[in-house]
Amino acid sequence: MTISGLFAPIPVPFNKDESLALDKLETNLKRWLSQPLDGVVLPGSNSEAPYLSDDERLAVWQVCGQVFRDSGKIWLAGTGVERTPDTIRLTLKAAECGAAGTLVVPPHYYKKDMTHEVLLAHYRSLADASPIPVMIYNIPAFTGIDFELKTLIALAEHPNIIGMKDSSSNVLKMGQLLQARPDFIVFAGTGGALLPFLSIGAAGCISALSNVAAVPLKEIMNAFAACDLEKARRIQISIMEINFAVTGGYGVPGLKYAMDQTGFYGGPPRRPLLPVGEAARKHLDRLIADLKLA
Amino acid sequence: MTISGLFAPIPVPFNKDESLALDKLETNLKRWLSQPLDGVVLPGSNSEAPYLSDDERLAVWQVCGQVFRDSGKIWLAGTGVERTPDTIRLTLKAAECGAAGTLVVPPHYYKKDMTHEVLLAHYRSLADASPIPVMIYNIPAFTGIDFELKTLIALAEHPNIIGMKDSSSNVLKMGQLLQARPDFIVFAGTGGALLPFLSIGAAGCISALSNVAAVPLKEIMNAFAACDLEKARRIQISIMEINFAVTGGYGVPGLKYAMDQTGFYGGPPRRPLLPVGEAARKHLDRLIADLKLA
Amino acid sequence: MTISGLFAPIPVPFNKDESLALDKLETNLKRWLSQPLDGVVLPGSNSEAPYLSDDERLAVWQVCGQVFRDSGKIWLAGTGVERTPDTIRLTLKAAECGAAGTLVVPPHYYKKDMTHEVLLAHYRSLADASPIPVMIYNIPAFTGIDFELKTLIALAEHPNIIGMKDSSSNVLKMGQLLQARPDFIVFAGTGGALLPFLSIGAAGCISALSNVAAVPLKEIMNAFAACDLEKARRIQISIMEINFAVTGGYGVPGLKYAMDQTGFYGGPPRRPLLPVGEAARKHLDRLIADLKLA
Amino acid sequence: MTISGLFAPIPVPFNKDESLALDKLETNLKRWLSQPLDGVVLPGSNSEAPYLSDDERLAVWQVCGQVFRDSGKIWLAGTGVERTPDTIRLTLKAAECGAAGTLVVPPHYYKKDMTHEVLLAHYRSLADASPIPVMIYNIPAFTGIDFELKTLIALAEHPNIIGMKDSSSNVLKMGQLLQARPDFIVFAGTGGALLPFLSIGAAGCISALSNVAAVPLKEIMNAFAACDLEKARRIQISIMEINFAVTGGYGVPGLKYAMDQTGFYGGPPRRPLLPVGEAARKHLDRLIADLKLA
Q1: What distances in angstroms separate CA D1 from CA A133, B69, C143, D91, D132, one per listed residue?
Q2: Beta-sheet strands, E only, within B167-208
Q3: Which of A64, B189, C263, D153 gets the highest tally of CB atoms within 10 A of its CB?
Q4: Which helix (H) or strand (E) holds C166?
């Protein structure tokens, strides 16, 4: 199976008291199944992964596994935590629940100590033990770790490390990686970088925006596949502002608010994250209205 | 009770299979009690705190609480985790176990979202709920978050937020903070900054080096208190290289190796951290020998 | 006149004693005229601009003006220096010499003081005074200044500020800029970002690599224009390593060495820059050989 | 001759039309001679050095040389520019004008290329050629270059490289440097770091604040020398906010405004720098009033 296309890194819904809302998760997942998505990822940064206990992580996977069974679509787990054995343990659980692969954020507290050698050992131990394919998740804005090209090239040699998501939108590094490892699967980490990444051979994107606006992102992919570059460019440019707003701009709280406005259950973030304020809500309202008109 | 003096942010000992070695912890703690320390902190960055489960955190506190009871010395807990309610919950547990205060690293995964407002809300919620005094732990090298002066000044207004540890060794920011809040308790975050911090009114230091070399650090404090500036300077300068080696230089694995060479149980780090290599061991051997001669 | 296509930001040749080699410049320029370039830029970062006196800057423009007269191609000047009046003065000189536009690096010594307001005032003063169109040169790796989106949008309102070169290869920011100002002229700042930038509507690139390998870069542009995306992608990926080597990798000394191997006069850099060492030369030899075979 | 004590890195005065005001410079210099300063530095960052032509640099040195002759005080030149030969040439001129030493900012445009080897070669060439002692000026906030410890230790071996100014206020690095090279002369780069730097053996400070408030800074040095640590600390803490305001806070325009309020000629900065606004003026007015009361 090849992992490619458009994926939503879904938010995890919480009730007003911040408790896990598995019923809302199920409803949302069914709605996402009806969107032009190739799958979902959970939990990732947009899922408040660092705010979930291990039990909660398992619970959301079980719900996802049930909803996606026989759907023809796939889901990827987020299993990266600080310790190597914990990352392996969670990956085995995710595989049991039906994950098609895992997207693994690096350990990152001891940033300076996460050397080339340490990262190789960590990911290789995982890839050796994992029954499902491993993908690297590079998101320096959150981890403070930006994978070096040589580390990526070395990791790509492992038969069970098949690709990565680059949330740093580094077209230069990804281009060099694809020159060295043409078969490595590269995902854009944000909808704003989709077309540039496709142009150099990326397999798709895993982007916050696809939670609420899968249609235009899929249209970009389709137009690109059909060599309709002008259409692809036009749509790509039209979503830049909203794409920024629901990720870099207003973070998970912004994305959850946007979900509430587009037929999903968004709900509150967990503290310390706070809901978006008045100005952000107005800005998002305008952007969502523009999107619906388009 | 005032919290001041020399504190060791102790490593947590693991067996060869990476399991928690509570017996070794107890032995080490008793040895630290005999050193010229005013107390210990656990778990902090030197304790591989991000690699401990909640149960393990509780277990080390229980051991520490028993060993320190009636010792005349105090211990501070590290209770900062990603979620606000979890941080509060852990703080209540630490207080039950006998912690004299808590040193709280900020939530840091969503770095960009950890705004002035979010940090205020997080720490104030904690300080309101905590039965023990709260101290802020600023360590941008690991968290990617460097507290703004205005945030520190605002937090210092809370009666239960009494001080901080600044592992960024920022004498300018600490000086400004102490101008605005003369009674705030400031700790140097590394032994290399002890004398500069004392000179502007710091209460002491919480430093990796004090795990293995409390004597010279205490001598600096004593010489400073006695206005023997030349002696204080001479000792301070003499420990700069070893101080760097056991923290910034070789990280927790370096500190654990140094413990093994100085009568404590160091043992292995947990993966992904790897034990120090041959060159680092030789360097540390030489620095420790020099220290013993001095 | 529209400014678009493929531009070489040319190195300035020096004799062995580091004196300006205007004869070599003339020879090189004539050779570049025969390449599939739309023009050249001088002096930019690849020209050791910060190492040229004002008189030398004028001398190279005069040579360039003569060589390019009636050539059907254009050249852009680099006129950005630290002071606003000096930048204006140099721009007037460049225009006299025949420059079709100017690419202007921001003042950058007082980084913190180069606020939105200061940058607006600087560029607007220049654009008001300049008889030729002004383009912004964003190169944070050298200046430590990364233009904010809002600053770019505000500057783009000025009728004489027509475009920019983004050497940070930030497809997200450029996409947002093009959504806000669809007619702004955006150039990729390195050959490795050419195709991703074209995909979102860029006008071309100004890249070190085009000094020595204009052919493949022009082929990428042609294939893209002809909607032959597979060919464009294949060539783009094939040049990633050499593109990195002659810019980020080995800097101006690496580029000058590559010129010496490809029929141009490269010559030595000015000190403090030092010629590339043995390992770099071997690496570049291999990359150049591969390129010639392709 | 030993270089130590309190130095003012003086602003260069300009007339309203931004032309050099040598008469104002002379008046200011005479006033500084009456302050408890050991000397001045010009041009440095506070002198808008990057905004001076070579001729202007020479002109200010000539005035300074005349005013300081037979004054019993010394002045240090700032001679660091981008090219190695230019830096040497300017240093020879400064020596002719009577400079007691030179404080040399590193070349910094090609940040990535300013490797350990390149910096060694640059400073050693200069130190070999210079008739006056060379001091290193480390100011990463402006240059983007932060000298590595190993580079400083290697440069300190040269008999004509006698010291440095560290505007990064890095007490850890300076402590390590002084452990390795106890005779190296270290200056704090800001008044806010004076006492912490003195505590580890620094020779004094070269600080913006000493232009307008030499008295309290000298009192700190005197109290420290007399082992009156409580007085030293009290004064040090009392100047933290104004110290920040006239440097990091409001930059050269803030310092020039403060000079205008304290009996010197400050005058306008050169563009692109803009005079400070209303809020900054009010803030500075308050801080200056507090200082006079103290």
Answers
A1: 69, 59, 38, 18, 11
A2: 185-188, 204-206
A3: B189
A4: strand C161-166
Contacts of A182 in chain C (CB under 8 A): 237
C240 in a domain, yes or no? no
C-beta atoms of D253 and C113 within 8 A? yes
Interchain touch D–B (≥3 Cβ pairs closer than 8 Å): yes
Which one of C24, C93, C150, C165 is the catalytic residue? C165
Residue-by-residue DSSP string for C204-260: EEE-GGGGT-HHHHHHHHHHHHTT-HHHHHHHHHHTHHHHHIIIIITHHHHHHHHHH
The interface predicted TM-score of the complex, written ipTM, equals 0.97
CA atoms within 13 A on the CB side of D62: 8
Alpha-carbon distance D201 to nearest alpha carbon in chain C (angstroms) = 30
Which chains reach chain B with 3 or more Cβ–Cβ distances below 8 angstroms? Answer: A, D
Chain D residues whose beta carbon lies within 8 Å of the beta carbon of residue C118: 272-274
- The answer to whether the Cβ–Cβ distance between C193 and A182 falls below 8 Å is no
Please report which helix (H) or strand (E) contains residue D101, including its range. Answer: strand D101-104
Q: Does the N-terminal peptide bond of residue C9 adopt cis geometry, omega within 30 degrees of 0? A: no
Examine residue C190 and state whether it is found in any structural domain, yes or no.
yes
Interface of A with C in 144-203 (CB under 8 A): 169-172, 175-176, 178-180, 182, 190, 192-193, 195-201
Cα–chain center distance at B103 = 8
- CB neighbour list of residue B279: distance below 8 Å, 6 or more residues apart: none
| Cβ pair A227:C232 closer than 8 A | no
Q: What is the C-alpha to C-alpha distance for residues A116 and A103, in angstroms, rounded to an integer? A: 19
**For B76-131, what is each residue's pLDDT tens digit?**
999 999 999 999 999 999 999 999 999 999 999 999 999 999 999 999 999 999 99
**Could you confirm whether A16 is annotated as catalytic?**
no
Nearest to D122 among C18, C141, C272 (CB): C272
Q: Tell me if A205 sits within 8 A of A177, measured CB to CB.
A: no
Q: Using CA atoms, how far apart are residues A24 and A40, in angstroms rounded to an integer?
A: 16
Q: Which residues form the domain of A202?
A: 5-228
Report the CATH number at residue C177: 3.20.20.70
For the entire predicted model, the pTM comes to 0.98
Suggest the residue from C150, C177, C179, C184 to mutate for an interface test with chain A (most A CBs closer than 10 A): C179
Confirm whether D130 is domain-assigned. yes
- When divided into structural domains, chain D yields a total of 1
Establish if A244 belongs to a structural domain.
no
The string of pLDDT tens digits covering residues C199-253 is 999 999 999 999 999 999 999 999 999 999 999 999 999 999 999 999 888 999 9
